[in-house]
Write a structure and sequence with these properties.
11% of the residues lie in helices and 44% in strands. The protein is mainly beta. The longest helix is centred in the first third of the chain and has 18 residues, at 2-19.
Length: 170
């Protein structure tokens, strides 16, 4: 009797676990390079990358924020070829919303890393800024969602001091 009860409980737990939309295991959003040094008037490019997308990517929406609009602003945002549908919406002077979808199923499960966007930054004046990514949603190809850890990038525009102290990436 006890064995039947245990099998029944295990079966119920497996059924419940299958009904809940799974959150994919460890994943990380980061910028490459994580520290950008530039001069006023230049427009360096930074890749936004996701690691740990082992269940594929079907679509995403992310807020990108620059914390110091007097030092740097957003330039062109471009997407890799697998992002067949995309939008960029300027929310305010420091934040944009980027969205992309993989309608061609090119980022399949088992891929461990994917480039989500290339972010160009307008270097305005000497100083420091931090670029961050805040996920709204990142869906995988198995009807689940990623809940990634997100790292920042430091932007250093020359003239900020003789020996610039680069803020630690979070």
């Amino acid at each position: 009797m006890k064995q039947t009860y245990t099998i029944g409980v295990l079966g119920a737990l497996i059924l419940i676990a299958g009904l809940i939309a799974p959150v994919s295991a460890y994943s990380l959003l980061f910028f490459n390079p994580s520290v950008v040094e530039s001069n006023p008037g230049e427009e360096p490019a930074i890749d936004l990358i996701m690691e740990g997308c082992n269940a594929g990517i079907s679509g995403y929406a992310l807020y990108l924020t620059l914390d110091n609009p007097t030092v740097a602003s957003f330039g062109e945002i471009s997407f890799p070829s697998w992002v067949s549908m995309n939008t960029v919406e300027h929310i305010n002077s420091t934040t944009i919303l980027i969205q992309g979808a993989d309608l061609g199923n090119q980022v399949e499960p088992a891929l461990s890393i994917a480039n989500l966007a290339k972010v160009n930054i307008h270097a305005l004046t000497a100083g420091y800024a931090t670029l961050s990514a805040q996920p709204v949603v990142i869906d995988d190809d198995r009807n689940g969602r990623y809940d990634p850890v997100s790292k920042t990038a430091s932007i250093v525009i020359s003239g900020a001091g003789p020996n610039p102290m680069i803020p630690a990436a979070r």
